[in-house]
């Protein structure tokens, strides 16, 4: 038990529980990358969420070392760095040349350029407690921005009155993780840990409320859309992680392109394509770090 938690056994307990919940959230994209491995293709989904998840975990580790005696922050974010690195490595292995180059460029820009800038701000333009404060607010900024990702999912739930676009298990563990880390931050009077998790927990409660309200309305989407469009919506139901929706939507769009070449006058195919393309353009659920960051990277 670290010095900072030795006088706060309850804080230590919440930190351990937060590690467990965050561990589960970090593993959420595994089915997506298993499919990538099996198909030997990234199917067009983006690497951006995983690049920023890796960066956020990295700066939280930096914050924890700078503050000292924050072993619980170091353990979960170290795991986060490892698992996100694995995800990115798999992506780079099976991505197209253009996607691979874009990912490597983003990695260099964010992890080298971004981290160097943060290092300069923390070590040369500030000292002592101010240094921790500067880095703490950088961590807060990145973490809070992550919690905006589920907003598009909540918007779609309200719009369709269906929870098919919002996986309960992921929402539950994100909420639980935020609660654990919020409690940890409050007990240790660590504003930088507590602040982003206030946002995360609040959004989590809203998601739980939406799920409770619309959980029995699974037929609403079919009632509001023509039969062929409802079929496309069903195919886009999220089972595990938000990036999976992006993959499924793009697959539907690609499928349409092939089918219309053979049957250019098919109204059924055109309706499916238009609905899939609309959902994709509106970004029903951003394939973002919400799939993995979360408060696990407190």
Summarize the structure in words:
The chain is globular. The chain has helices at residues 3-6, 9-26, 30-39, 48-67, 71-94, 97-123, 128-146, 150-160, 168-187, 191-214, 220-224, 227-235, 242-262, 267-281. Helix 13 packs antiparallel against helix 14. By secondary structure, the chain is mainly α. Residues 225-297 have low confidence and may be disordered. It folds into two domains: 8-218 and 288-297, no CATH class; 220-281, no CATH class.
Q: Which descriptors would you attach to this protein?
A:
single chain, 298 residues, 14 helices
Order of helices and strands: HHHHHHHHHHHHHH
Uncertain regions spanning at least 5 consecutive residues: 225-297
Tally of individual helices: 14
> How far apart lie the N and C ends?
18 Å
Outline, from the CA principal axes?
globular
Average pLDDT across residues? Answer: 76
User: Structural class of the secondary elements?
Assistant: mainly alpha
Count up the domains: 2
Helix content: over 70%
Using only C-alpha atoms, the radius of gyration works out to: 21 Å
Largest sheet: none
Number of strands: 0
Give the strand content. under 5%
What quaternary form is this?
Answer: single chain
Q: What are the SSEs and their pairings?
A:
Layout: H1 3-6, H2 9-26, H3 30-39, H4 48-67, H5 71-94, H6 97-123, H7 128-146, H8 150-160, H9 168-187, H10 191-214, H11 220-224, H12 227-235, H13 242-262, H14 267-281
Helix pairs in contact: 2-5, 2-9, 3-5, 4-5, 4-6, 4-7, 6-7, 7-10, 8-10, 9-10, 12-14, 13-14
